[in-house]
Specification:
Oligomer: single chain
Strand order of the largest sheet: 1-2
Structural class: mainly alpha
Distance between the termini: 35 Å
InterPro entries: Aldolase_TIM
Number of helices: 3
Helix content: 40-55%
Shape: extended
Protein name: Dihydroorotate dehydrogenase 2
Strand content: 5-15%
Enzyme class: oxidoreductase
GO molecular function: dihydroorotate dehydrogenase (quinone) activity
Keywords: Oxidoreductase
């Protein structure tokens, strides 16, 4: 519905600015009735790795920093 528009707008920004804008808007929506429209229910998908069980899949990425 709104994803293509938002994606196109965010991809026009510097990555750091896109990150800031996204989190500002998420904070603004949290706790409002609008949150129910954008929230997605994520089903639990447990993963066991090296003897540890996690509630959901996990990823590990290396990067600068």
């Amino acid at each position: 519905m709104y994803y293509p528009f938002v994606r196109k707008a965010l991809f026009q920004l510097d990555p750091e600015r896109a990150h800031e804008v996204t989190f500002q808007q998420l904070r603004r929506v949290t706790g409002t009735p609008l949150e129910m429209l954008v929230r997605q229910k994520v089903p639990a998908r447990p993963v066991t790795c090296m003897g540890l069980t996690f509630k959901n899949p996990l990823g590990l990425a290396a990067g600068p920093g």
